[in-house]
Write a structure and sequence with these properties.
about 10% strand, elongated, alpha/beta, six-stranded mixed sheet, about 280 residues
């Protein structure tokens, strides 16, 4: 298969998992390459996501690595054969690659869990809220550049608003709901959007109240995307210079525990809706 110039995060993840299986088996890249009748350069390209790999080769490697996790092998084989070109491809080369990577991960996710402390989660944002946010954070952007980002964010909502939604849980700190990113009317519309979404059977919204004592989770904001198997989960966090995709098992387990802890401190979905209703009345 020809080398890719810009592999997606999902393609890189496939290569990463194949490397982890090889290392767990105690094999060197040259030894793995010999199993495929190729060389260490191509093996390195496969494990970095720069080169594709066939389902047959994925299964051959897994067998030689003595991997007995059939669900994981099937999931990796599916990743290797996936040729999905979704709506996000329209933005490739126009917006930063992380935008397409996030949309593609959303599309393939089995579930999504968010923790939001400062801003309303992207999947629940209104167009006006998102526009105000992008314009404020990037004042040098022309209107057209902001409009592209807003359009992309609105289209990402298909994973919870579309015909085949995924289970979605989000914990939002009351501070994020109170901050007026846009004007009073826009803030009220944003709260209405959160309430409307919370009525769906597949959506769970919980709020951490400002009055809660002993909440030190201000740095717990995250997006947790469920993979075909837990090992293929991904946590997405904002980093100083871009978006960070976290996929090591130790870190994934850390963020799973953190989500459970934050959720346990939040109000129930019913009490959360009552609080959001009250905040809307105050505007």
């Amino acid at each position: 298969m020809p080398a890719r110039r810009n592999p997606t995060a999902r393609q890189v993840r496939l290569g990463t998992e194949l490397r982890r299986l090889r290392e767990a088996a105690g094999l060197k890249a040259t030894e793995a390459a010999a199993l495929l009748g190729t060389n260490s350069v191509q093996m390195s390209q496969i494990e970095s996501g720069v080169a594709g790999v066939s389902e047959q080769r994925v299964r051959r490697l897994a067998a030689n690595y003595a991997c007995s996790d059939d669900a994981l092998i099937d999931a990796l084989a599916a990743m290797a054969t996936d040729r999905t070109r979704g709506w996000w491809e329209e933005y490739r080369g126009v917006l930063p690659a992380a935008y397409q990577d996030l949309a593609e991960m959303d599309h393939h996710a089995r579930f999504r869990k968010d923790v939001a402390v400062i801003h309303v989660p992207g999947l629940l944002q209104t167009e006006e809220y998102a526009r105000a946010l992008f314009a404020y954070m990037n004042p040098e952007f022309p209107a057209g550049e902001v409009a592209l980002r807003v359009e992309h964010r609105m289209r990402r909502r298909v994973v919870i608003d579309g015909p085949d939604p995924i289970p979605y849980q989000t914990v939002i700190h009351e501070a994020a709901l109170r901050i007026r990113v846009a004007g009073r009317a826009a803030s009220r519309a944003q709260l209405d959007r959160v309430l409307e979404a919370s009525e769906a059977d597949h959506v769970t919204v919980q709020v951490v109240p400002l009055a809660l004592d002993d909440f030190a989770g201000a740095g717990s904001a995250m997006v947790h995307l469920g993979g075909a198997v837990p090992r293929l989960d991904t946590v997405v966090r904002d980093a100083p210079h871009g978006t960070a995709f976290i996929d090591s098992e130790a870190q994934l387990e850390h963020f799973r525990r953190l989500f459970r802890r934050v959720r346990a401190q939040a109000l129930s979905p019913e009490r959360s809706r009552d609080l959001i209703h009250q905040l809307a009345k105050e505007l």
